User: Fold this.
Amino acid sequence: MPNIQVDPHPHIHSGKSTHKYMLDLPITTYPMAIIAMLIQFLFVTMYLGASFSEGILVALQAGIVIFAGVFSCIAAETIWNRYVNKEFNDFAGWFRSMATTYPSITGMLYALTLPLGTPIYIVIIGGFVAIIIGKSLFGGVGHNIFNPALIGRAFITVAYSGALGQAVKYDTIHTVFGDITIKAADAISTASPLAKVTQNGGLLSFDAIENIYGSFSKLFMGFYPSALGESLSFWIILAFIYLVVKKTIDWFVPVLYVLVVFLMSWGVALYHQLGTPISEGLSLQTLAIYFPIFHVLTGGLLLGAVFMATEPVTSPITRRGRAIFAVYLGIITFAIRVLANLPEGVLYSILFMNMFVPIMDRFYMGQDKGMKRKEYVLWAVTILIAVGVTLYAAVKLGGAA
Amino acid sequence: MKLFKAKKGIHIPGKKEDTSKLPSVKYISPEYVYIPLSVKGSDFEMFVKPGDQVKLGQQIAKRERDKGLPLVKHATVSGEVVGTERKLHRTGLPYVCIKIKNDFLDTPVEFTPIEDIDKLDNVKLLEIMRESGVVGLGGAGFPTFLKYQNTKDIDTIILNGAECEPYITADYRIILERTDSVIDGLRIMMKVADAPNGIIAIKKGKKEVYKVLCEATAQYDNIKIMQVPDEYPAGWERQIVYRTLKRSYENFPFECGVIVNNVATSAAVSQAVREGMPVIERIVTVAGDAVVKPRNYRVRIGTLASDLIQLSGGYAPEHKDVRVISGGPMMGVSQKNDEFVVTRAVSAILVLSGTSEYQVPHHQPAGDVLLNVLHFVEHDDRHFERDEQPCVRCGNCVKHCPAGLQPTLLRIAAQAKDEDLLGKLDVMKCINCGTCAYVCPSHIEVNEVINKGKKYYQVKTRNKKK
Ligand code: SF4
Ligand code: SF4
Assistant:
């Protein structure tokens, strides 16, 4: 006669687990780190005329920055859990603690937003800030209001703006092995694309882009100065497909986010007639389609949309709330980029919208009986805001140009 | 905006193969039956005293309206009343039961069969339904005749044969084995309610049942067979009504002109009217991974579950711990011991392996932790891992909650004992279906917490009203 146990219902479970869910992020981001190193190597050797050994050093530097980012997050989590939470005192306990608080994922996402030349001590400071201030002080996994990786990134952007501004430039690359001077330092190597747009008053003609960055396929493959992970558009799109197929993320959050930025920047481009009419044949220039594509491919929009905006802890809980969230992310990103002239639109917009998550949850509180009237009003207002911002931006940019 | 709508319900592997093909076995009546009354026992009026001889189908106790739900209890074997005794009820509470010693003669009470239902008026039919103690056999145990007291605007009777809980195949077997009774019962109920239409709702993909029902109802134009998606909880009244008629209602289905009954109930109604026989037996599924021979039985109401488990070959020897559940794995109640009574509303007895086999030990070697975390260790779905993680707000529970609530917000509100927030989150709309806990990747017992919050909310609001 076996022993009879009592447990609350349901007595079965779907077999889903947070670990399995979280495992999809390393599966997509860790290869990205390797690819980032490879792309950095190819970029400096093929397009900037660096020698092979210099290329290897650059790739190593990229690897060290990423490693420092991940390592500092794990170290911060270890210290916090060991000495503040007193969670464990042996290796297995440490392992379990690391496996259930996921600092390595935060760390990797944080590292991928860093530019190549970031001094290592800054990387480590940012990692600690990300974990301690961004997560642990709020109460650990599931209680943080802001995306921890972005908190770390925002902190170093503000505190070390000079060093970071230098870090993204490729004329002199500061590596841990010493500085590497790129002889063929030209326009491309001195600024990230969005900074370039900002310098040009927010508008950039197709020819200017082609002149500076070469073709759009180069932009797509990530051969331009930017943070390590931001530029790898092709990989991020693959990761997006994987994550959607595995149902790890909601597909409409990145799609809506990117779509809004796309449409708004397209609106600006159309207003200024940057492109050519359809009658001249189809190309990237037709109807200025290149300009929104440029906006989508640069400035870390894809990275932010796929990995940061979908982070479940810091996004609304209902699906419709998430849709609204994504649309506002798009609007704010665009506004920051174009109106405030800051290239870090993605970073600040996500952090900003994180604050509104409780409000959005409250908006959708209670039994879901389909669209309510105030929800239609909310969408109408949202669309009006989007159109208004686009028009304002279009007019304002025209004045500056 | 259908796109961003919460996806209601979730597909759960059925696990019905074990028992769905086996015809139900007639279980020879047990030596003693226990007819459960209630926890107090004193709210029932008893018609028998110890030492009395009772016949099969004789009324032995009754509760009037003013003392609770009006219920009638019958002797389900013939024999001698021994007395009262406390036994576990399907709800997990000890009920006062009337114990009857079986004389194995099955002497029935006299009755004149009714051939032509058209000659009977509705009042009389309702009377029969009431006196023969027909209750919701799907699991609710709600007296059926109460649903038919106000039938002014009713235009459709839906028979619920969806049986959305895994493992259970009792309704499936009833449809196959007593097809005519099911349809006859439906026609009687349509007559009582003056409803022109009847619908039998079954799950998508059950071809055998569909074929049988289609053939049997071919002669009645006003009875339709409809299929509902294979999702839990497709058998919930609200879902059935919505999926078949696209109607929704506030509190009770009659608000939109519908009455929903279980297929087993329908068969019981037919039996009561045609043969004068109250509900004395029902089909019960005995299944689960820790029982040797899963099977369906036709058993007398009042049989002890332990008898049925013995009959199914007993507990599988490889399990040190088991859980015995009355009802399905999603909403059934885990019992303290296996001596609980099969009442009219018990559709299954599940024997599942114990939870301790899946407990994560606190001091695991690092290698095991790694394998566990990376999910190389097989995590199967018969258990609920007891390694609760913090809620990561993944939104799974919100996506699947059939009532369209936000379980994780409810959980937080319930833990904070915030009755205003609980009210705003519509805690009373929760049907305690367990879907939220089933899908939660962090293995939080969401519905358990919500249920506590619900009780707290009820107490608080009641106090406020006073
Ligand atoms: S138990 Fe309640 S809150 Fe949870 S899924 Fe069911 S109805 Fe929703
Ligand atoms: S399913 Fe679990 S982890 Fe996900 S939001 Fe609901 S309670 Fe939180």
